[in-house]
Amino acid sequence: MSLKVVRAYLTVVLVSVLAAAQTAEQKTARYLDSIRRQPPLLLAFLHDMPKGGDLHNHLDGAIYAEDLLDFAASDNFCVDRTTSRLLGAPCDSCEHYTPKPSIRCAYDDHILYNQIIDAWSMRNWRPGDESGHDHFFATFDKFGLTSHNHVAEAVATVINRAAREHVQYVEFMHTADGGAAPQLGMRLGWDNDFAKMREELLAGGLKEITAATSKTLAEDDARARTELKCGTADAEPGCNVTVRYLYQVLRGLPHEAVFAQIVLGFELASSDSRFVGLNLVMPEDWYVPIHDFNEHMAMLDYLHGVYPKVHISLHAGEIAMGLVKPEDLTFHIRASVERGHAERIGHGVDVMLEKDPIGLMREMAARNVLVEINLTSNDQILGVSGDDHPLPIYMKYGVPVAIATDDEGVARSDMTHEYLRAVEGYRLPYTELKRMTRQSIEHSFLPGESLWVQTKGAFRPVAACAADAATEEKPTLGCEKFLAANERAHEQWKLETAFARFEKRF
Questions:
Q1: How far is residue 205's CA from residue 200's CA, in Å, rounded to a whole number?
Q2: What is the CATH number of domain 151-447?
Q3: 441-489: per-residue pLDDT in tens?
Q4: Strand 86-87 versus strand 78-79 pairing type
Q5: Secondary structure class of 126 (helix, strand, coil)
Q6: Which of 120, 301, 434, 506 is the most buried (most CB within 10 A)?
Q7: Hey, is 330 helix, strand or coil?
Q8: pTM (2 decimals)?
Q9: Which helix (H) or strand (E) holds 149?
Q10: Domain residue spans of the chain
């Protein structure tokens, strides 16, 4: 046998040995690299990949317009033919010239139907007289009359979609009290003494609002499970999704209403296990959120001292140059972390315009503050995407990040396409996708200890589960007891099992 043939034979043997020695994760990573330029295969890969949790999901905005139209039809609403805004009865006939037809008329009028879908979402939106920002946020006033009446159906629809694309955990932002807290706050009025105002709210009816809100959510959750046929042989995939809620404060309201809502959020998260924290929402650039921003941070700072165990995630940095004055771009993220006690930041798009942005990101990394990354909405609302988006910069400075949907129904997106944007836009390797997915559960507000001890960004299992490999096998007795006692660790084990099953295919 010639030396050339021997070398060739040894090369084949060496390649075979190295291939056999590769882990399932490494083989999966190589497969992802091999299909980067084949979008259909890439989309299929990302659809089937476990995606952990969706930590930034507005329930109202997660509903697709087609479902909202069905909800409105069941409520017998009318629609303004010019603005596509829902109106109460009585309705006009379905003739083309009537200004206020029944929403049901859209089923037999494809022009009206398509007009409504476009008005209630970003479908077919094009830059023109109306900005993406304005069109996006205007949708909520158009369909809001019906979305509030169908919480159970909305939850069932959204988590069923999540389950089908291998999302296992969702934290819904949801203003679950139906406006009772802000109405109470407006009735009692404003007082610069936060402690006094809190006591007046609790004595004036907020405790009863807290109990009623919990009762309503329990009923909605039960109806959602009934809708999904949970516990039966015909159970839908959504039954396997773990759901928790963040009480959603509307920061564009008068300050006495905002304070009442924030107190309600803290009270709910202290008394109802379904509520795991709170968040402040509405466009960051509107007058009241800009004007009252520091006051809102002062409210959170005080109430965090009263309820130190309650989790806080805050929208901050969902603004861009030209949308507000330059001065307003320099401090919102830092203030949300340092004064608002945010453990997570939603969006964080304008971070490089903050004072000392590198120092801020180092501080966020040191505090382990995660950024909820919403690529589609950042593009549609702010026009920020690709190299202009700070996602790679956050990663460079060790700030934990997780992909989220924001308002997938309005945006006409889903978690799979959010991951697709991340992979195509930033050429993220499989190991980074897996890290982001793990971070989504690690930074969830589920109670209990983590499955992981993180050292320099690496995930190492806690001592109780150190001997357990990430497989589909049942954990050892010690690990099983640890998982049973810690919801967060249990959800993380569920994710690792899903990853083991997924990577086995490659």
A1: 9
A2: 3.20.20.140
A3: 999 999 999 999 987 778 999 999 998 866 667 899 999 999 999 999 9
A4: antiparallel
A5: coil
A6: 120
A7: coil
A8: 0.94
A9: none
A10: 22-40+448-506, 67-130, 151-447
